[in-house]
Write a structure and sequence with these properties.
444 residues, 6 strands, alpha+beta, single chain, 2 domains, Outer membrane efflux proteins (OEP), two-stranded parallel sheet
């Protein structure tokens, strides 16, 4: 199975897959297009793919562990020597320009027949690592999608806050005109005009700061999408939330859907296989061995013609079985088994800790999700009341029936209501996104 096939069939948003090669020629960037660009370009995802690709190459040749090894060796030597020999009878023989050629070749085969089942365990370990590689990619994809969604809607939030600032600027400008008008007709005071001007300047400063915040959030989103930082775009001005999440459904079979828990569980399986590999070292190793050998030696002259040949040729093959039986190796195997068993215990503890962390995060985010959902309704009512109260106070101030301070307080109440509503809606979206990330439902 293709290692990355699940990426093509598991993303729940089909538009994301279709849009992954689109450019930023359009003025408005959707959250789907932002996710698509991140999945296509994000460095963390690309690095995870490279890591898993290495494991996939190993998996392609996993059955080769059962095959024999076959090696060929050859040597050819050319010799030119001079030789002087003195025999027991006093005879001296001198040979010059002795030329000899030696050719040796061998073909050796070794086939492990039994190694304590380590070959099978090695194949099982590769299978588990393949699954782990897929989950690593999925975990990185889920994390990246969550980061893109939160960053995208953070930009939306900041744009909504910018609209709030623009509205409050307009109200401050209108209050400045009213206070100046009352001063001009002799029923107002100078401090009211000055305070209105200060409030208006503060709103202008807030607007500049808000524009800077929007630009900073866009730079963060550009980094996640791995696109040039100078690219500019607009985002939609609404935050869409899912109000139907249920705690029981989120916790149901969480160990089978959360990528982090699945990875921790696979680490236990890997540790178990490593224990079996360590124990397999206690068994003997039996192998079939065979070789074909070829040797040829030739010389143009010899010192003792009666006993030394000018030419020899040897060739033939052999075969048999070899066995290696571990008897005593300074307790190395015992030490390796104990270390592997400790790794199993550590992996189980880490899995239990991960379970506790995930469950706690789900409960914490769900409480925030429920609270923010209720606060959103309250804030909507507060905005309606604050606007009505401001309209009343503005008319009363126009008629001289209220003070400048009361009108200013009414504007501040509306400002808080607008800001709280925007922030709460974004916090609701963050809680929803975190719950879906923990559940693993951002990628299906």
């Amino acid at each position: 199975m293709n290692l990355f096939k699940f990426l093509k069939c598991s993303i729940g948003i089909v538009v994301v897959c279709l849009a992954c090669n689109q450019s930023f020629s359009q003025d408005t960037l959707t959250v789907e297009r932002a996710i698509a660009n991140a999945l296509h370009n994000n460095y963390d995802i690309l690095l995870s793919k490279e890591d898993s690709a290495s494991i996939a190459i190993t998996n392609r040749y996993r059955d080769a562990v059962f095959l024999p090894t076959l090696n060929a060796n050859s040597t050819i030597l050319f010799n030119k020597n001079s030789q002087q020999t003195k025999l027991t009878d006093g005879t001296v023989r001198n040979r010059n320009g002795i030329k000899a050629n030696n050719v040796n070749a061998a073909l050796a085969l070794n086939w492990t027949l039994f190694d304590g089942f380590r070959m099978f365990l090695a194949r099982d370990l590769i299978d588990v690592n393949i699954i782990r590689g897929n989950l690593t990619i999925k975990n990185q994809v889920v994390t990246t999608i969550a980061d893109v969604i939160k960053t995208y809607y953070d930009i939306v939030q900041q744009k909504q806050q910018l609209k709030n600032v623009d509205e409050l600027m307009a109200l401050s400008a209108d209050r400045l005109k009213l206070s100046q008008y009352r001063l001009d007709i002799g029923v107002g005071i100078k401090p009211d005009v000055l305070q209105a001007q200060i409030d208006y300047n503060n709103q202008k400063a807030l607007r500049v700061n808000q524009l800077a915040l929007i630009d900073q959030r866009k730079q963060q989103l550009n980094r996640l999408m791995n696109v040039p930082q100078n690219i500019n775009y607009e985002v939609y001005d609404s935050i869409l939330v899912n109000n139907d999440l249920v705690l029981g459904a989120l916790l149901n079979n969480i160990d089978q859907t959360n990528p982090s828990l699945q990875l921790s569980k696979l680490d236990i399986d890997i540790a178990d296989i490593n224990v079996r590999l360590a124990k397999a070292a206690r068994y003997p190793t039996i192998a079939f061995t065979s070789a074909y050998n070829f040797s040829r030696n030739s010389s143009n002259q010899v010192t003792n013609p009666s006993f030394q040949p000018l030419f020899t040729l040897n060739r033939g093959f052999n075969y048999g079985l070899t066995a290696s039986i571990p008897i005593f190796n300074r307790f190395n195997i015992k030490q390796q088994i104990k270390q592997a068993e400790l790794t199993v215990d550590y992996s189980r503890l880490r899995y239990e800790n991960e379970q506790s962390v995930v469950n706690t995060d789900i409960l914490t985010n769900y409480r925030s999700y429920v609270a923010q959902r209720e606060i959103v309704s309250i804030n909507d009512s507060s905005i309606t009341l604050a606007r009505e109260n401001l309209n009343i106070e503005r008319e009363r101030y126009r008629l001289g029936a209220t003070t400048f301070i009361e009108l200013r307080q009414a504007e501040e109440n509306l400002a808080r209501a607008l800001s709280n509503s925007t922030t709460t809606l974004y916090n609701l979206k963050v809680a929803e996104t975190e719950l879906l990330r923990l559940r693993g439902d951002l990628v299906r």
